Amino acid sequence: MVQAKRAGEGVAKGGVYKGEGYKGLVLVVYAAIGTKSEGPHYLLQVSDREFYILHKNKQNLWEWDRELEKFSRRFVEVSGKATPVKEHSYYSKAADYLPTGMGIMGVIEVETIVDIGGQNFPR
Q1: Residues 24, 89: Cα–Cα separation, whole Å
Q2: 11-15, 49-53, 86-90: which has the minimum mean pLDDT?
Q3: What number is the average pLDDT over the span 89-109?
Q4: Which one in 44, 72, 102, 122 has a CA-CA gap of 20 to 30 Å to 1?
Q5: For the chain, what percent of residues have pLDDT higher than 70?
Q6: Which DSSP letter does residue 93 get?
Q7: What distances in angstroms separate CA 120 from CA 1, 23, 76, one per listed residue?
Q8: CA gyration radius for the chain?
Q9: Tens digit of pLDDT for each residue in 6-24?
Q10: Rounded Cα distance, 110 and 80, in Å
């Protein structure tokens, strides 16, 4: 089981990525079906039953995020600030629409996201 790392600064001066952050698989879950907020939620799976909601752009819940969409089904390393779901103003109600038993650990405000798909990802 892969343990989530705590996100550090993530980016050094000059925009060079230092490699500190959360590693996992990006999944797109279609949630809140039948409501006005029906749409995609972007999740980072860090272990078998531990997920973080990824949030990059300020947009409505029913809209696709073009920047996160291109990392769908890819192994990535994400840097950013993680907060509990209930304390996050944007996703406090939205997490109720995700399938139960997923183990949502929090919301990551994505600063940088790097594709590490070519690397061996340990289980």
Answers
A1: 24
A2: 11-15
A3: 74
A4: 72
A5: 69
A6: T
A7: 14, 12, 11
A8: 14
A9: 433 333 333 344 456 899 9
A10: 5
How many residues comprise the chain? 123
User: DSSP labels for 25-67?
Assistant: EEEEEEESTTSTT-EEEEEEEEETTEEEEEE-S---TTS--HH
Q: Confirm if 113 and 58 have CB atoms less than 8 A apart.
A: no
* 55 vs 123: CA distance, rounded Å: 25
Residue 80, by phi and psi: left (phi above 0), alpha (psi -120 to 50) or beta?
left
CA dihedral (45, 47, 50, 56) positive or negative: negative
Q: Does domain 22-115 have CATH number 1.10.530?
A: no
Whole-prediction pTM: 0.74
Q: Which residues contact 95 (CB under 8 A, 6 or more apart)?
A: 53, 85, 86, 104
Helix, strand, coil content of the chain in percent (nearest 5) = 10, 40, 50
Beta bridge pairs of residue 43: 27, 53
